[in-house]
Amino acid sequence: MPTRHRLLAVVVAVCWGLNFLAIDASLQHFPPFFLVALRFALIAVPTVLLVPVPQVPRKWLVGYGLGFGTFQFLFLYWGMAVGMPAGLSSLVLQASAPFTVVLASLFLRTRLTPRAGTGVLVAVIGLAVVGWQRLDGPAAFAPFVLVLAGALAWAVGNLCTAQAKAPNPLHLTLWMSVVPPLPMLALSLVVEGPRRIADSLTDWHSPDTVPALVGLAYTIVIGTLLGSGIWSWLMARHPAGTVAPFSMLVPVVGMSAAWVALGETVSRGEVAGAALVVGGVRVATRPPRPAVLTQPEPEPELRPSDPRPRAARAG
């Protein structure tokens, strides 16, 4: 994986890490299921009108939309709405990386190199250390499981993206956004109710309105269009197991930003776990060292035998 592609993957990690602050701000105003529908509907409408349909098999487009778009954010927003902190959410969601590696090896027969396996294992240990520090009491178990389910859905979306091999990954990302709005709106109407949806669209005087709208704009422009567009481009050009470990940098950004902006504390154990995550990503994504080519030693020169008799040679 070239260095410039690795830098792009890091840019995506920063965008997605800050995305959790934007989601937290939006959830202060909008109900979670409706927020998912609204987020993708605002992208889907201009996409259908202006963007050509990507030339990929429909099953991979729908699979990407359901995995990455619908179920990932359904469980993520749900988990955050019922108490999962933004920083911890950014951490748990990155379980998508080991999920992706395992699913790719099972269903795509992608070879897992010892180096990549070791790096993912180290990063997973780091995630476990941070998660252990933050999971305090049974009340946090349900939100944790919800966000973990979102991570599994993201991994499924990663595999669909890799299989789609879209000529234009940005078009694939945009058309992925066409899948979530209708099912999420239907779910919102059933679970959250029309009254709650209407209140979120008409109450513009509450102090959380402006931050919620700014957060929504960030998730659309930066989180989805920029971040997911670059991510899809990378997934189309490299094995899923090579790109996915970069997502484990997201909690480092997310938890740091949550500490600064939201006052979420970071313990020494969390810092140690974050360091393991970064180290694991570095090991998993470092290219193998090129083989050192050595010049072969010259063979000794063979002198032609002297055709004269032994006696003549001695004389």
TrEMBL record:
Q: How does it sit in the membrane?
A: Multi-pass membrane protein
Q: Which Gene Ontology cellular component terms are annotated? A: membrane
Q: Which InterPro entries match?
A: AA-Vitamin_Transporters, EamA_dom, EmrE-like
Highest taxon in the source lineage:
Bacteria
Family membership, please give it: Belongs to the EamA transporter family.
Cell membrane among keywords:
no
Q: Which UniProt keywords apply?
A: Membrane, Transmembrane, Transmembrane helix
Checking SUPFAM superfamilies in the record gives: Multidrug resistance efflux transporter EmrE (SSF103481)
Q: Which organism is it from?
A: Nocardioides exalbidus
Q: What is this protein called?
A: O-acetylserine/cysteine efflux transporter
**Mostly located where?**
membrane
